Amino acid sequence: IYAMFGLATCIFYYIYTIIIAFSNTRSSRIIHNDLLNHVMKAPNSFFDTTPLGRIFNRFSGDIILNDQIFITIFNGSISLWLGIIGYVVIIAVYNPLFLAFGLPSLVVFYYILYKYRITVRNMQRLSAISRSSVLSHFNETVTGAGQTSLYSSFLSSIFMAGVVIIGWYQMDASRIYIAINSAIWFAELCLQLIQQIVENESRMTSFERIRFYSKKLPQEKSRSEIGSIDPPQNWPQGNIVYENVSFRYRSGLPYVLKDVSFNFKGGEKIGVCGRTGAGNSSLLFALFRLIELDPKLQPKMIDANTGFPIETNRNEKPNKGRVFIDGIDISKVDLQRLRSSVAIIPQDPTLFTGTLRYNLDIGNKCNDDRIWEVLRMVEMQEVIFNLPLGLETQVAESGSNFSAGQRQLICFGRAILSNCRIVVMDEATASVDVETDAKIQKTIREQFADKTVIIISNRLNTIMNSDRIMVMKNGRVAEIDTPEQLKNFCK
Known about the structure:
InterPro entries: AAA+_ATPase, ABC1_TM_dom, ABC1_TM_sf, ABC_transporter-like_ATP-bd, ABC_transporter-like_CS, ABC_transporter_C-like, P-loop_NTPase. The protein is an alpha/beta fold. Helix content is about 55%, strand content about 10%. Helix 3 (about 50-95) runs antiparallel to helix 7 (about 175-215).
């Protein structure tokens, strides 16, 4: 019988462990994906004002603590509850009058839990906000071993005295021993349960922070609240119009663009230049809707520390203007559709951890022949072919196993494979050598011949082959004309 009981216990514990493991993994994945989804849809101003370390901590430390909470609740709290119920049943079977002392003691235990829980929760929040030299003092306060042990000893003595008094007249020595032993363990388990509950709640501050990011974080609005437009399949063709565009990055800051208006024809190669801070790269914030021009679409900002909305100055002029692509107001186009229709090649080439094939063709829309053809166009075919795994080569973090020039050429290959009619280059040649710059210029002339290309650069040789050059100054369009006309103007 004992062997069968032991075997059944082992089987039950094995099944229990598997269920806990799968449940914990699934819940962690759901919470992580929900957190990631909301952070990825947060407006640009959130990333400007929130330290990256704090965001990383939500995905690392807080997620880990949340996993520990899940395991602790099931492995600790449930077993303690079962133990308490078991001892209550044992003592009640031997002496039903135990309930006269047992039930009132639970009320006292609950009072201790209530007081202790409030203190620990407040201390834990202070500890999480400010990691100062008094951290050890906070930890001692959170632990609270001395105070709870004192309460436990006091209650255990009263509870055991009641069992002894009742049992003195109604039970023999063996039963009194079982009742006293059960009473001692009952009080001990109640103490452990209090500490377990409080510890779980103190750790729940991590879940509160995750929940804040998942529920209260401002989100970009994928479609306009004043109506939406579903562009045709062949949209866009490349015509771009800015109409009196003025915006600031966030409330309280000055305008970075001021009444900017221009018209880029489809298939044009436009060079954009200007001094640092003139508003060159700021043009892209409006094009990709990283900053909303329509006040109705601007998300309400919330202070990540307090959770309260950030009040804006009502006397402050709002963002204004409109951006059209092929005559369609982009504020009424779905964000995903808009951003997937414009390819960008940034100054710092971005490669993701994964295979080289994935970095070139993220949507997995092209076959190997097309990928190799594009690698030949950007003169990277030989380099990739000589790698042992070819397209299956694993890209290290930030693409560290490729040089800066090679990473930039891979990004160009990605832009070609995306087959977008609008291509934006934001200082794409600023950090590459002259040889790589020449390869990039050749790629632009040959592969982007029928596409609208916006080249933001302070290198004159990079933009001199453009159809027109737009000069930015103090957030305004100072000049826009052909390179030849601007040369004559400067003379």
